[in-house]
TrEMBL record:
Belongs to the nucleotide-sugar transporter family. SLC35B subfamily. It is found in: Membrane. It is a multi-pass membrane protein. It comes from the Eukaryota. The keyword Ion transport does not apply. The gene is Slc35b2. One of its GO terms (molecular function) is 3'-phosphoadenosine 5'-phosphosulfate transmembrane transporter activity. Keywords: Membrane, Signal, Transmembrane, Transmembrane helix, Transport. Residues 1-17 form the signal peptide. This is Adenosine 3'-phospho 5'-phosphosulfate transporter 1. Its main location: membrane.
């Protein structure tokens, strides 16, 4: 055990090739790779028994032989109704509601409301995310304060509120009859939890602008995952814009010099965590896309995924004893409590604004709003937290957002053209 401790303690320094801040050197137990495997072990303690139970019920043909008060619950979790709907063109979203004789002023007001809601929710979320993960709490003239270290607790806070909001929405509004086996949400939930954890953890090693640029480039692994998982094919302009995005991100990353402030240095650990975020998030979107072949609304998807996310995170936190420790941190620092709650509120409200915006104005308008949000997030982070961007880095940012807007324009043109296709012809799948 002593040798293992020494090896794990030396891994961060060996991996990055540079001095790690004292806050990240407290012990080998604080190294992100160790925590990742501990978290994964906690999720496995829930996934493995669940997998064995599902196999047991299917082997016994419980759908035909089962009965009793537990039968409806087991049927819903293991079998569902097994009735699928025709896969929609958007992949995951219901048809957009066309406005019925609505005035132009009313539509403009709705658009401004959606844009303001999305910008306020996600810009606030981004600023708070960086504040929580990179700054200390309780600092005084004599005490440097302490940092919050458990990213998994923040994931749990976000998911429990999203679960509550989605549950209330489903209870108060009419939803399609649910048909998917509940256990199928667990795959998207697990990858979603891991991607969120990587996203929070990466901020300990890289700057927020770097993270935003890397997230903007996730269309590349999404396309790769789409070809691998869903056997999708793509247009030439999709490959072109993906290449432009990778060039822009590379320009931004390579413009960071080692002698800059520590917050702007891209470390090896940060790159690995960002890669983990992108891979897990790409799987999540493709798996959810496949799940939408069942008749369900986006809010039902939000509810189902967050049920398992809450189960995974609270189970892992309890097994590690980290839940009480995080609650104790909240009790010691009321400022952190306010930040964590507001972070969760922004995340949950942002998801509802996403569904409403796409339903009212379509995916193209939504993508434009969110692309502008990413640009504003970089600007806001630089202004508040003092990040510096070189001329080459600024050009890289411009290339990325130019490619993103080009994707939006090309996709809207393709959708207009696909509406004119003869019956029986289907357009190429898009991401």
């Amino acid at each position: 055990r002593f040798c293992l401790s020494l090896v794990l303690a030396s891994l961060p320094t060996m991996a990055t090739g540079e001095e790690i801040p004292p806050a990240l050197q407290d012990s080998w137990g604080e190294f992100w790779l160790f925590r990742f495997f501990v978290n994964a072990a906690g999720y496995a303690s829930i996934v493995v028994p669940g997998f064995l139970l599902i196999r047991y019920f299917k082997k016994r043909n419980y759908l035909e032989t089962g009965r009793g008060i537990c039968f409806p619950v087991i049927k819903s979790c293991v079998y569902g109704s097994e009735v699928k709907s025709v896969h929609q063109e958007d992949g995951s979203l219901p048809p957009r509601a066309e406005p019925t004789e609505s005035s132009t002023a009313r539509q403009v007001f709705k658009l401004l409301f959606c844009a303001a809601g999305l910008q306020a929710s996600y810009l606030t979320w981004g600023v708070l995310q960086e504040r929580v993960m990179t700054r200390t709490y309780g600092a005084t003239e004599t005490d440097p304060g302490e940092k919050f270290k458990d990213s998994q607790f923040l994931v749990f806070m976000n998911r429990i509120l999203a679960f509550t909001v989605a549950g209330l929405y489903c209870a108060l509004t009419k939803q399609p009859r649910h048909g998917a086996p509940m256990y199928k949400y667990s795959f998207a939930s697990l990858s979603n939890v891991l991607s969120s954890w990587c996203q929070y953890e990466a901020l300990k090693y890289i700057s927020f602008p770097t993270q935003v640029l890397a997230k903007a480039s996730k269309v590349i692994p999404v396309m790769m995952m789409g070809k691998l998982v869903s056997r999708k094919s793509y247009e030439y302009w999709e490959y072109l814009t993906a290449a432009l995005i990778s060039v822009g991100v590379s320009m931004f990353l390579l413009s960071s010099a080692p002698n800059k402030h520590m917050s702007t240095v891209t470390t090896f650990s940060g790159v690995v965590l960002l890669a983990g975020y992108i891979v897990f998030d790409s799987f999540t979107s493709n798996w959810q896309d496949a799940l939408f072949t069942y008749k369900m609304s986006p809010v039902q998807m939000m509810f189902g995924v967050n049920v398992f996310s809450c189960l995974f995170t609270v189970g892992s936190l309890l097994e590690q004893g980290a839940l009480l420790e995080s609650v104790g941190f909240m009790a010691r620092h009321s400022e952190f409590t306010a930040h964590a709650v507001l972070l969760s509120v922004c995340s949950a409200c942002g998801q509802l604004f996403i569904f409403y915006t796409i339903n009212q104005f379509g995916a193209a308008v939504f993508t434009i709003i969110m692309t502008l949000r990413q640009a504003f997030a970089i600007l806001l982070s630089c202004l508040i937290y003092g990040h510096t961007v070189t001329v080459v880095g600024g050009l890289g940012v411009a290339v990325v957002f130019m490619a993103l807007f080009l994707r939006v324009y090309a996709r809207s043109r393709m959708k207009k053209r696909s509406k004119k296709l003869p019956p029986g012809e289907t357009p190429v799948q898009k991401v």
